[in-house]
Amino acid sequence: MAVKIRLLRMGKIRNPQYRIVVADSRSKRDGRAIEFVGVYQPKEDPSVIEVKSERVQYWLSVGAQPSDAVQRLLELTGDWQKFKGLPAPPPLKVAAERADRKAAYEAEAKAAAGLADAPAKPAKKAAKAEAPAAEQAPKAEEQPAADAAGEQA
Predict the structure, then answer these.
(1) Does the pLDDT of residue 27 top 50, yes or no?
(2) What is the phi/psi pair of residue 41, to 5°?
(3) DSSP collapsed to 3 states, the chain
(4) Annotated region Disordered: where (predicted)?
(5) Beta pairing class for 15-24 and 3-12
(6) What value, to the nearest 5°, has the Cα angle with vertex 64 and ends 61 and 68?
(7) Among 42, 55, 117, 138, whose Cα sits 20 to 30 Å from the Cα of 85?
(8) Cα dihedral: 102, 108, 113, 117 (round 10)
(9) 12 vs 85: CA distance, rounded Å
(10) Is the pLDDT confidence value at 137 over 90?
(11) What is the mean pLDDT of the chain?
């Protein structure tokens, strides 16, 4: 039996998510698999690639052939280089930690109630009210200077 390591497509339309599986080469793309060895989500930023390294190493050692797409993913994670005895690639990009939405909400609530030392964001209405007043003051100063220049000529 020829065994392949390949992608099994999951997810919705225009939102593909794949499982990296070990399957018989004669089975359908989304058919029965022998073992699930990882996950690949290309739509995330950066892409999510999670691989069970020990299981992939085992299947490669017993002769399983990766598909072209899976081989590229294994090269990114370093599992292919480990199997071939080559130097490891640079580490994968990791998504930045998400801001804690609950903490941000509590900070905004305290600022609105007047309990915080300083508001997290300046008030938009106050900033808009200050901007026109600041723009009109220099214009008023320019008017007399222009009139004085006109009188001298």
Answers:
(1) yes
(2) -125, 95
(3) CCEEEEEEEEEECCEEEEEEEEEECCCCCCCCCCEEEEEEECCCCCCEEEECHHHHHHHHHCCCEECHHHHHHHHHHCHHHHHHCCCCCCCCCCCCCCCCHHHHHHHHHHHHHCCCCCCCCCCHHHHHHHHHHHHHHHHHHHHHHHHHHHHHC
(4) 111-153
(5) antiparallel
(6) 120
(7) 42
(8) 110
(9) 38
(10) no
(11) 81
pLDDT of residue 17: 94
For residue 73, give both structure tokens: 């993913």
Domain at 1-82: CATH architecture: 2-Layer Sandwich (3.30)
Contact 92/73 with Cβ under 8 angstroms?
A: no
Q: Model's pTM, two decimal places?
A: 0.60
* Phi, psi of 24, deg, nearest 5: -65, 140
What CA–CA distance (Å, rounded) separates 41 from 95? 13
Burial of residue 63 (CB within 10 Å: 0-12, 13-18, 19+) is exposed
The residue whose two tokens read 């609105």 is 112
Give the residue extent of every domain in the chain.
1-82
Q: How crowded is the C-beta side of 94, counted as CA atoms within 13 Å?
A: 5
Antiparallel, parallel or unpaired: β 65-66 and 3-12:
parallel
